[in-house]
Every structure is written in C-alpha cells, then in structure tokens.
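Posting here for the record, re: magnesium ion.
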Amino acid sequence: MSKALGSLAIIADKLVKNYVSYERRGFLRKRKKIIKALKGVSFNVKWGEVFGLLGPNGVGKTTTVKILATLLLPDSGKVFIDGVEAFKNLSYVREKIDIMLTVEKGFFLNSLDVKTSYILEHCTGWKENCLRKE
Ligand SMILES: Nc1ncnc2c1ncn2[C@@H]1O[C@H](COP(=O)(O)OP(=O)(O)OP(=O)(O)O)[C@@H](O)[C@H]1O
Ligand SMILES: [Mg+2]
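Prediction output follows.
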C-alpha cells in the first residue's frame, strides 16, 4: 500500500517509563531507586520523514526507541504505528518494524557473533579488531 507523504507513520503519545533499580547501601543493604526515564514524551513521525532523536546521555532515547519497537512496555502513554495502536495489535505492527540496536553499554565485545560483527562493520564502520586492541 502506498502511503501519502505527510501522513503519520509513528505517533508517540505521552510516553512515561520508570525503571526500578537497587542501590547498594553497605554489605547487605540495598535501597530501591526509581529512575524516571520518560516523563510524557510525545512526537509524530511522518511517512517518508527521516527523524533523528538526539539528546544527552541517559535522557531516554534508547528507552523511547525500544517502546516504539514494542520491545518494552511503557508505564503509560500510547504508540500508534501506521494509525494502529501498537500494544493492542502486536503482530500487525511488528511486521512493519525493522530495528537494529547497536552496541550498548555492558555488551560483551569479545562474544559478538560473526553475523553481528559483519552487520556492525558494514553499517557503521565499526571494527571489532580496533576495539579489542584498546
Ligand atoms: N534496564 C534499566 N534499568 C534501570 N535503569 C535503566 C535501564 N535502562 C535505562 N535505564 C536508565 O534510564 C535512563 C534513560 O536511559 P536510556 O538508555 O533510554 O538513555 P539514552 O538517551 O539512550 O542514553 P545514551 O545516550 O547513553 O544511550 C538512564 O538514566 C538510564 O540509566
Ligand atoms: Mg541509548
């Protein structure tokens, strides 16, 4: 189906996401910490638009992308892909989504499989050998 340029491919509507983490307080004590990753993020992406999500480290870019790709549930808010509410129509919207998440913090570089290394090198210029020497 052809899409009219200007119509909406993605709607992010008031996305909220809190993570729960635990801070160590001494040998046995831990304190629960709520991290407010998204505090009501809204934007639209039109068909045919190249949309960049920019911001300082930790501001919630990856969290937003994971929610848009239906890999992570928001605490509240809605996502529409091609006019369809994403979390109520998972199989329909997942057929429309292609996503490649690149190397994240905590990723074990030495255990990347051959296919992942190949894709990273050819899409981003990333060289596994260069990183291993450092
Ligand atoms: N699984 C998780 N558990 C707890 N906190 C998390 C988790 N994932 C992300 N966070 C926290 O949520 C906030 C947003 O993180 P996110 O990774 O979405 O930011 P980002 O904009 O992609 O950052 P970067 O530019 O460093 O990639 C940060 O404070 C981060 O530490
Ligand atoms: Mg990120």
